[in-house]
Amino acid sequence: MKIHENNTLGKLGAAIGKGLLAGMAATAAMTLSQMIEMKITKREPSDATVKVAEDTAGFKPASKEDKQLLSQEIHWSYGTAWGVARGLMGLTGLKGLPANLLHFGAVWGTALVMLPKHDAAKPINEQNPKDIAIDVLHHLCFNRRPCLRCIGCRQPPRTQSEKDYGNLKRLETPIKIS
Questions:
Q1: Is residue 178 part of a domain?
Q2: Which of 14, 33, 85, 137 is most buried by its number of CB atoms within 10 A?
Q3: SS3 for 20-80, per residue?
Q4: One digit per residue, pLDDT tens: the chain, 178 residues?
Q5: DSSP string covering 110-149, please?
Q6: Is residue 119 domain-resident?
Q7: Buried (b) or exposed (e) across 86-103, using 16+ Cβ within 10 A?
Q8: How far apart are CA 62 and CA 66, in angstroms?
Q9: Transmembrane stretches, by residue range (predicted)?
Q10: Please, which residues have CB within 8 angstroms of residue 139's CB and are 6 or more apart in sequence?
């Protein structure tokens, strides 16, 4: 199946679609990071998302199970939405480290402002440095490359054919084969 990205609507649709997929993958990475950290530190799952939902939308889960389910639904929806934002950011031409830093700043910055505003977390200046570092790690996991670097992984080197294909894509004039 050929993807048509050669017009504005196609580019927009592709950016949103890629963002949705990237957001789900990034949320999975962040969730895995949190699960590992909770197992190591013996921390209970956070109820910050539910506190914000209760404060902003008036949701009142009836049971502990409902509270955990609502928390997961919000977590995945919120993370996927940030993936769409990152996909749309790509339409601006911003790529690589600058785009990753801007996205990280937007995601983590929103959490730093929104959670204390709704009494779901302490302001950063009242938090323990260890807790801040753990939170930064989780948010870095929202971006695949920094997450992999944090845990010591490296991307496999590109094959020669992948390098050649990348170089061919950059050529401005088509290659004529006789």
A1: no
A2: 33
A3: HHHHHHHHHHHHHHHHHHHHHHCCCCCCHHHHHHHHHHCCCCCCHHHHHHHHHHHHHHHHH
A4: 555 667 888 889 988 998 899 889 889 989 999 999 999 999 999 999 999 999 999 888 889 899 999 999 999 999 999 999 988 998 998 888 888 889 999 999 999 999 999 999 999 999 999 999 999 989 888 775 544 444 444 445 556 655 555 554 444 455 555 5
A5: HHHHHHHHTTSS--GGGS-HHHHHHHHHHHHTTSHHHHHH
A6: yes
A7: bbebbeeeeeeeebbeeb
A8: 6
A9: 12-33
A10: 30, 104, 107, 108, 111
First to last CA, the chain: 28
pTM of the prediction?
0.74
| Residues spanned by the domain of 73 | 8-170
How many domains does one find in the chain?
1
Name residue, tokens 């302001």: 123
How far from 113 is each of 74, 108, 118, 121, 125, CA to CA, in Å? 17, 9, 9, 10, 12
Instruction: State the amino acid at position 48 in one-letter form.
Output: A
Q: Which two tokens stand for residue 59?
A: 């949701």
